[in-house]
UniProtKB/TrEMBL annotation:
TPR repeats lie at residues 213-246. The keyword Signal does not apply. InterPro entries: TPR-like_helical_dom_sf, TPR_rpt, Ycf3. Pfam families: TPR_16. Keywords: Membrane, Repeat, TPR repeat, Transmembrane, Transmembrane helix. The chain crosses the membrane at residues 6-28, 40-60, 72-91. It comes from Paraburkholderia panacisoli. This is Uncharacterized protein. The keyword Transmembrane helix applies. Gene3D superfamilies: Tetratricopeptide repeat domain (1.25.40.10).
């Protein structure tokens, strides 16, 4: 009878331990998950289970005279599972700490540290103090890559007449297909006499943003500089259709028309320009003298 009773006790103990294992399965799944929150795990309960199983296994081994039985191996298995869970939790903590360290060592904090340089540059640019703005922007860009800041520095350099220094900044933006870099880069290249490169930049801008009037104005200006009057008229006409209330494509369209000796179209567009923008005295004299109109470009 004692033999059967011991088997019943063993079976009940196995069922009880199996139920405990099933109860902890959700915790094990959380530990295995990549997005698990380590702080949500009850490490205290796991520690108590680990110590109780280890102690009970040693007691069973001592009582059986050093001969392990079924109950001993059950407790050993539970102890090993607790150790595995602890290892997974520690691994998760290590990964979480490593990710936080990488974030602290990354670019965002450095960008925040240097943010005052960009703000200083923006303020100086608004005050038309372009030399100081260039120095502030250059110091910022030494630590952080930022397209908007590079573009602002290029604008300031152009304001200072240093187009050759502004061009590499535009070229860097153009390599990343930044629209403002292509448009302003085209105008800068045109000012430096590089008509072919200016036309290429403007063409890329129109392909990148076919609905942006500024891209078509840049393309028309590039055609105008290279003597392609008809292409210039087409580009400025397209820009005007995209933005009928902008006076720039209207005026440039008039210039292109006058360059190809279409005085009727030129005068019509200049009259339209008058209705869109208030002209100073020099522009009014230009309207009365079409032969001098081709000497000016607006971009």
């Amino acid at each position: 009878m004692y033999y059967y009773l011991s088997h019943w006790i063993t079976a009940m103990f196995l069922v009880w331990n199996g139920a405990r294992i099933l109860a902890y399965l959700p915790t094990i799944r959380k530990v295995m998950a990549q997005d698990a929150d380590v702080r949500s795990y009850s490490l205290v309960s796991w520690g108590i289970w680990f110590l109780s199983n280890l102690t009970f296994a040693l007691m069973l081994l001592e009582v059986s005279g050093g001969q392990p039985n079924e109950m001993f191996w059950v407790n050993v298995g539970n102890t090993i599972m607790c150790m595995a869970v602890f290892a997974l939790v520690l691994l998760k903590k290590y990964r979480s700490r490593s990710m936080r360290t990488m974030k602290c060592d990354g670019h965002p904090p450095l960008k925040v540290e240097c943010e005052h340089l960009r703000e200083q540059g923006n303020t100086l640019m608004q005050l038309c103090q372009y030399e100081g703005a260039v120095r502030a922007y250059d110091a910022f860009l030494t630590h952080v890559e930022d397209d908007a800041t590079a573009f602002n520095e290029a604008i300031c350099l152009e304001k200072l007449g240093r187009r050759a220094e502004a061009l590499p900044l535009y070229q860097q933006l153009a390599q990343s297909n930044v629209l403002c870099g292509l448009i302003n880069g085209s105008n800068c290249l045109r000012s430096l006499g590089a008509a072919a490169e200016a036309l290429e930049y403007a063409s890329r801008a129109t392909r990148l943003a076919p609905g942006d009037p500024a891209a078509w104005i840049a393309l028309g200006s590039a055609h105008l500089s290279s003597g392609a009057w008809r292409e210039a008229v087409d580009s400025f006409s397209h820009a005007r259709r995209l933005d009928p209330i902008d006076s720039t494509p209207t005026y440039n369209l008039a210039l292109a028309a006058l360059r190809m000796n279409d005085s009727d179209l030129g005068r019509e567009e200049l009259q339209a320009f008058l209705s869109l923008a208030a002209l100073d005295d020099s522009c009014r004299r230009l309207l009365d003298s079409p032969s001098n109109a081709g000497s000016r470009l607006v971009h």
